[in-house]
Amino acid sequence: MEKDVSDARQLLGIKGASETKNGWKLRLQLMKPITWIPLLWGVICGAAASGNYNWTFSNVLASLACMIMSGPLLAGYTQTINDYYDREIDAINEPNRPIPSGAISLFQVKLQIWALLILGLLVAYGLDIWANHQTPSVFLLALGGSFVSFIYSAPPLKLKQNGWLGNYALGASYIALPWWAGQALFGHLTWVTSILTLAYSLAGLGIAVINDFKSVEGDKALGLQSLPVVFGIKNASFISAGMIDIFQLAMVVVLIFIGQNLASVILILLIIPQITFQDIWLLRDPLKFDVKYQASAQPFLILGMLVTALAIGHSPLSSF
Question: Is the CATH code 1.10.600 the one for domain 2-319?
Answer without folding.
Answer: yes
